[in-house]
Design brief:
With 360 residues, the protein is of the alpha+beta class. It folds into four domains: 136 residues, D-Amino Acid Oxidase, Chain A, domain 2, CATH 3.30.9.100; 26 residues, no CATH class; 87 residues, FAD/NAD(P)-binding domain (3-Layer(bba) Sandwich), CATH 3.50.50; 56 residues, no CATH class. The protein is built from eleven helices and 19 strands. The strands form five sheets. Strands 2, 3, 10, 11, 12, 13, 14 and 15 form an eight-stranded mixed beta sheet that branches. The chain has a three-stranded antiparallel beta sheet with strand order 5-6-7, with no helix packed on it. It has a three-stranded mixed beta sheet with strand order 8-18-17, with no helix packed on it. It binds flavin-adenine dinucleotide. The site of flavin-adenine dinucleotide (FAD) has 20 residues, from strand 5, strand 10 and helix 7.
């Protein structure tokens, strides 16, 4: 797929910049200097175009693609699965050997056999829309994501989607949103943009070109991700806060691993839950690997350290490596990341002491 994606005209992304509420204290995560990042350049993809490319590639590779078919039931027996679907108002059935629940946050099978367990430390919402007329950086940084953190622990994203369109979103803690939400997603987004001064200047000549959307952006892990003849991938299995843009990468990695497990299973005649054990463990491990950073991002001690000079350049480069998507860090990178979190823990204690002194 890589060559097709690279030739599809998507915006190149080389890094991410972070700014505090007032703008000047920029922290730039340049993926080129991240540890263990052999492909530091990725893409900002328009999902409808990207998904269409993936779909046509599957078709070309031999998959039978049925579009606009909605799964309504799956009946399991010892020889296979009978799927019931609706299509253009009619109902049909089909026999398959294994079902992959790739239904995103709907989690068709996951919710039948278990549930999505919300993450208590990542209770946020998102409101977002597309804009034209927002100035962007020039050169290699023109395609980077720009993030603006807010004192209420929320943050804004600016993601270039094409040469003219930029996606703008606000991720806000649910407790804050309950207090500050407006009548419509568009008004809520305008409100969060208006009281983030650094971001506001970017919007002076901008025009919203899509309706604003609201997402109850909580994070979760499925209580069960697989069973006999079924397995869940992508958001059906787990959803992590979009702060480090890990969603599509994690979903695609899950797709690769599940395809291998099913291929082996069909060859050996065993498509029981057992063959997905390693996969499920890997999904949970990866979720927790990135979750630590996502949770940290909503914490004052983590943010303070992130915006200050790093104690050692190699520690910063190790953290950026994870932000660039490194889900299998080497021993040395893991140690450097542990040192970073140890300093965050010390910073947390210091902030607490200062806070209690201030309260006296
Ligand atoms: C606010 C927000 C911002 C995000 N930002 C980023 C980002 O910057 N970068 C990033 O990588 N990720 C981001 N993500 C995450 C990313 O969107 C998801 O992780 C990714 O789309 C997961 O892919 P998926 O295929 O599992 O699910 P989806 O993309 O949700 O696809 C699921 C598909 O299943 C279909 N479906 C549902 N039910 C049925 C049914 N019964 N029968 C048939 N089909 C069905 C749906 O119509 C849909 O087409 C963001 C998510 C949110 C909410």
């Amino acid at each position: 797929m890589s060559d097709t994606i690279a030739a599809s005209g998507f915006i190149e992304k080389w890094g991410a910049s972070f700014r505090g509420p007032d703008g000047p204290d920029e922290r730039y995560a340049d993926f080129q200097f991240a540890r263990e990042t052999p492909t530091p350049q990725t893409f900002q993809v328009l999902r409808e175009k990207f998904d269409e490319i993936l779909l046509r590639h599957s078709e070309k590779s031999g998959a039978r693609v049925l579009e606009e078919h909605r799964l309504t039931d799956a009946a399991f027996d010892s020889d296979g699965v009978t799927l019931t679907f609706s299509h253009n108002g009619s109902v049909g059935t089909m026999r398959v050997g294994v079902v992959i629940d790739a239904s995103g946050r709907t989690g068709v099978l996951v919710k039948r056999f278990g549930r999505h367990e919300p993450d208590p430390l990542l209770l946020n919402i998102a409101v977002h829309a597309q804009y034209e007329g927002i100035p962007r950086a020039s050169g290699r940084r023109a395609g980077d994501i720009r993030m603006y953190t807010r004192p209420d622990m929320g943050w804004l994203w600016f993601i270039p989607l094409s040469d003219t369109v930029i996606s703008v979103g606000a991720v806000i803690p649910q407790v804050v949103h309950r207090r500050e939400s407006k009548a419509t997603p568009g008004e809520s987004l305008a409100h969060y943009l208006a009281n983030t001064p650094a971001a506001l200047s970017l919007l002076e000549g901008a025009r919203r070109v899509s309706p604003a959307r609201f997402d109850a952006d909580y994070s979760y892990l499925a209580t069960r991700m697989a069973g006999d003849r079924w397995v869940a991938v992508g958001d059906a299995a787990a959803f992590l806060d979009p702060v480090f843009s890990t969603g599509v990468m994690l979903a695609m990695q899950a797709g690769v691993e599940v395809a291998e497990a099913i291929d082996n299973g069909l060859r050996t005649g065993d498509v029981s839950a057992r063959i997905f054990t390693d996969y499920e463990r890997a999904v949970r491990r990866r979720y927790h690997h990135f979750r630590r950073f996502a949770v940290g991002f909503y914490e004052p001690a983590f943010r303070k350290l992130w915006y200050s000079r790093p104690p050692l350049r190699s520690i910063f480069d190790a953290v950026v490596s994870v932000l660039a998507g490194n889900w299998r860090p080497s021993f040395v990178t893991r140690v450097l990341v542990e040192i970073f979190f140890a300093v965050v823990a010390a910073e947390r204690v210091l902030l607490k002491i200062r806070g209690s002194r201030g309260a006296r």
